[in-house]
Specification:
The strands form 3 sheets. Strands 3-4-5-6 form a 4-stranded antiparallel sheet. It is 46% helix and 20% strand. By secondary structure, it is α+β, with helices and mostly antiparallel strands. The radius of gyration is 22 Å and the shape is elongated.
Amino acid sequence: SLGTKATRANIIDSLYSRNYVQDQSIKVTNLGMQTVAALEKFSPEILDEKLTRHFEKEMDMIMKNKKSGDDVLEEAKKILTKVLANFKKHEKEIGKDLLQANLETRERESIVGNCKECSGKLRITYSKKNKSYFISCNNYPDHKIIYSIPKYALPKPTGKECKECSYPIILMIRKGKRPYDFCINKNCKSHQEWINRQNANNQEQ
């Protein structure tokens, strides 16, 4: 299992937002694979499942009043100090190994499909001013086209096209809720059906 029941949703949200995983079926990205490889090479203690299980048992012992919290905390400090010191020693090598993988993954994770009006690619873009995502063509400023997408969700490419209009489908990831597919074409039948469902849900609430 991944974390506790209380932390599992936040862990998965973080994995998506940092591009370590993708898709509804949770597939590991190139960056995720390279991160594991780099840590196995330079700081394998961080990936030690036995260490995680050990402290899960220790926490359980504290809850059952069979062990002192101070003793467990002191043990954790000693182990983590050693682990982090080793990581710090190799952080430049780790960063070097991950830099290219990060650039490649970010590029791959931003492209949602081909532009229907020119030879460009449609990509996910983030507006710091509006604090929201939108889809734009990479031929900007020659081709100024923007597709709005719902706020309060993290968009990810799916590589799929809408069955109704053949525009790109993106995956919308919301904290604590099931991800959903979304057609970016506002004139599409499936897009309008999605809006109608949202309006109906809002009225029920």
